[in-house]
Specification:
The structure holds 2 protein chains of 2 kinds. By secondary structure, chain A is an alpha/beta fold. Chain A has 2 domains: about 1-220, Rossmann fold (3-Layer(aba) Sandwich), CATH 3.40.50; about 225-290, Alpha-Beta Plaits. Chain A is built from 11 helices and 14 strands. In chain A, strand 12 (about 250-255) and strand 13 form a beta hairpin. A 4-stranded mixed β-sheet of chain B has the order 2-1-3-4. In chain B, helix 2 runs parallel beside helix 12, helix 10 (about 215-230) runs antiparallel to helix 14 (about 315-330) and helix 13 (about 285-310) crosses helix 14. Chain B is elongated, with a radius of gyration of 30 Å. The chains are: A alpha/beta, B mainly alpha.
């Protein structure tokens, strides 16, 4: 589906991509992770033909990118993080406009419109102006626009930013359903639990190179170690940061999760006592396992600030 | 593809109340206000000089002299009390241009002792009076004095001449008493015999030109909005090329510009007369009119797109667009007619596309000319518009490569 060999791209003296190699199989939901400035946006822009590259070989949908850009674009879709739609147009007017500029008409238009509308549950709001929609509805419209050409390959750039949990789940459900239609999804996000739930494979990109790639389950299995995951109740990020600042073996994964590396009974006991003193309840302890965020933190030196 | 872009663009403009106001309501109101404000500017019957007379002579001749001045419609006589020095100062400060004092014994000395120097008339002039105005007023006074002398001479000669000679002299003297209207007829270029250009005819073309350039603001702000919201990026990812994107902008806004021209002409023809000013009449060449408005529109749209691709924010586009519009208008003879400008400014005006458009429209509306005569203006406007669009396209492409 996608084959990238020895891809390099520089902005002046800055190497955004450095001899990057990547293979993505058809029908995969593929998570592309990396700290800010790692090269994710550059890679996705190149794959969409929005940016030239210096050297390398790229095949998308089985054909060479440069010479077949038009046909590739007809079979793929890019769903940007920013809501790329017209606020002053209604939902249906937005859909018809973006279909029109792709020269989609007739029965194909009707079929694809129906598909984009039903998959994203837009039936009830077709006549509403985009500016009057909720954040989640606008995100769904943003995705629906990308489905108008019924693409085989979809690029998603942080599609759930700034929306409520219910809308987030609806969108993830929609994306998961693409797998049943044999579509391939390239998904970039900073939100690790989302990637864990959604993706079959992931690649972590840092300083323009792929530093880890594989099936998510396998990677997490291999990462099994002497660590303990503390899943907590009624905790806050501020509290956990304060606790972690006094313990070099402790990492804050999120507001409800701590990761204790190089564990020992003594360290676990100390941490349990500390949590009790802070009145933080424990939902679950998991020995010898990790999660994607912990793996990401371990591999990328830039740390939690970028996540 | 084009159809989708045109429909989208019209919908966006149609739903943008500020854009609609800037494009249609503002120019219409502008035309109305300016037509009313300039209603009398080009009226030759309008009084240009306000004056008062202090007659200390109080003879039949001095009254006749006053009547001679009063008969001129270019002069407006004020019956103000300006006899004392303070009254005079006050009147001149408050808007009176001249006070003419006919001294006691003026006509007696003028007519009865012609060999001697006459007692001069006194003119008190406002401090800000223009030199040309003073010269014209002095000439008018001199003409009045000559009239008095001629009348007197006629009366003196009548007992001395034979009937035939007297008739001849009377006929010739009568010639000196003719008004300017009787001996001079004025023909205005492009007008039918007896017709004169109206203020509406002379001013509306300026505001049409100015109104067309208002398209800069909605076009550039919508374009920047599309860039900021990534809809342009999305369109490129859907394989829409730069030329298609630009043409998708150019066509709708040129159509909007032509609608503006129709609206503004309609206001000039049908609304302005309702407020007491003259109605606008179309020239004799609709094709010439279209050529000029097409050229102007292309330049306005080219300017707008160039601004849109060169700046980062909507605020910048609004400010720069507004300033460019006003500057081009100011130097292009929109706000102040070019013939009022000094030579240097007139040379500068020739560089403004608004000036080219205005010249073209004046050829059509005022001088009754056609496509051949407006061809130079049309070519200049189309060339500039094309150049601006090409430049905008190059900058747009260059910016895309640094995504």
């Amino acid at each position: 589906m996608i084959s990238i060999k020895n891809l390099s791209k520089s902005y002046g003296k800055i190497k955004a991509l450095n001899q990057l190699d990547l293979e993505i199989a058809k029908g995969t939901i593929f998570g592309l992770l990396g700290p800010n400035g790692a090269g994710k946006t550059t890679l996705v822009s190149i794959l969409n033909g929005l940016l030239d590259f210096d050297i390398g070989e790229i095949e998308v949908l089985g054909v060479e990118l440069g010479a077949n850009l038009k046909s590739i674009r007809k079979r793929s879709a890019f769903i940007p993080q920013a809501l790329a739609l017209y606020d002053n147009l209604s939902v249906i007017e937005n859909l018809r406009f973006f279909a029109g500029i792709q020269n989609i008409s007739g029965t194909v238009l009707r079929h694809n419109l129906d598909y984009a509308i039903s998959v994203n549950r837009l039936e009830a709001i077709l006549e509403q102006r985009a500016q009057t929609l909720s954040g989640g509805q606008r995100r769904r419209l943003n995705i629906a626009i990308g489905l108008l050409n019924n693409p085989e390959l979809l690029y998603f750039d942080e599609p759930t930013v700034g929306i409520d949990p219910e809308s987030r789940n609806q969108i993830l459900e929609t994306i998961r359903s693409f797998k049943d239609d044999a579509k391939t999804v390239i998904y970039t996000s900073h939100y690790m639990p989302e990637i864990e739930k959604l993706c079959d494979e992931v690649a972590i990109i840092d300083h323009g190179r792929i530093i880890l790639k594989g099936r998510l389950a396998t990677l997490l299995q291999e990462e099994k170690s002497d660590s303990v995951v503390f899943e907590l109740l009624h905790s806050s990020r501020v509290q956990l940061d304060a606790i972690a600042s006094q313990n070099d073996d402790l990492q804050v994964v999120d507001a409800a999760t701590l990761l204790l590396v190089r564990q020992s009974s003594e360290k676990v006991g100390q941490l349990l006592a500390r949590l009790a003193s802070e009145e933080i309840a424990i939902r679950q302890l998991r020995y010898g396992t990790t999660n994607l965020e912990a793996l990401f933190l371990r591999l990328t030196a830039t740390g939690a600030a970028d996540v | 593809m084009f159809r989708a872009m045109l429909v989208k663009e019209f919908r966006l403009v149609g739903r943008d109340k500020q854009a609609l106001a800037a494009l249609f309501i503002m120019p219409a109101i502008f035309i109305l206000i300016m037509s009313m404000a300039l209603k009398d500017t080009f009226d030759s019957e309008r009084a240009l000089v306000d004056y008062a007379v202090i007659d200390l002579d109080e003879t039949a001749e001095s009254v006749a002299f006053g009547n001679f001045l009063a008969a001129d419609k270019g002069l407006h006589k004020y019956e103000s009390a300006a006899a004392t020095s303070s009254e005079r100062q006050s009147a001149l400060r408050e808007g009176l241009d001249f006070v003419v004092e006919i001294p006691a014994g003026f006509t007696e000395k003028l007519l009865n002792t012609p060999a001697e120097k006459p007692i001069p008339l006194k003119i008190y002039a406002a401090a800000d009076i223009k030199k040309e105005m003073l010269k014209l007023f002095q000439a008018k006074l001199l003409s009045g004095v000559q009239q008095l002398r001629l009348k007197d001479l006629k009366q003196e000669l009548s007992p001395l001449l034979s009937a035939a000679a007297l008739n001849l002299a009377a006929t010739k003297f009568a010639g000196f008493e003719m008004s300017v209207k009787e001996i001079v007829t004025v023909h205005f270029s492009g007008q039918l015999e007896g017709q004169r250009p109206t203020s509406t005819q002379q001013s509306v073309p300026s505001w049409i030109v100015f109104g067309l350039f208002f398209v800069i603001i909605p076009l550039s702000t919508i374009f920047i909005g599309e860039r900021q919201q990534n809809t342009l990026l999305r369109m490129r990812a859907m394989h829409v090329s730069t030329p298609v994107l630009l043409v998708g902008k150019i066509i709708p806004y040129m159509v909007i510009n032509q609608l503006q021209v129709c609206l503004m002409i309609g206001v000039g023809m049908f609304v302005v007369p309702l407020f007491g000013a003259d109605a606008l009449t179309l020239g004799r060449s609709l094709s010439g009119l279209f050529m000029v408005s097409f050229g102007l529109s292309l330049t306005a749209v080219g300017t707008a797109i160039l601004i849109a691709v060169s700046v980062k924010t909507v605020e910048q586009a609004t400010t720069i667009g507004g300033i460019i519009n006003i500057l081009l208008g100011a130097i292009g003879g929109i706000m102040v007619p070019k013939f009022y400008m000094p030579e240097v400014m007139q040379s500068l005006a020739r560089l403004s596309p608004m000036s080219w458009g205005l010249d073209g429209f004046l050829d059509i509306f005022l001088r009754g000319l056609g496509p051949v005569e407006v061809l130079p203006e049309f070519l200049k406007l189309v060339s500039l518009g094309g150049f601006l669009l090409l430049l905008a396209g190059i900058i747009f492409e260059r910016n895309l490569k640094t995504v």
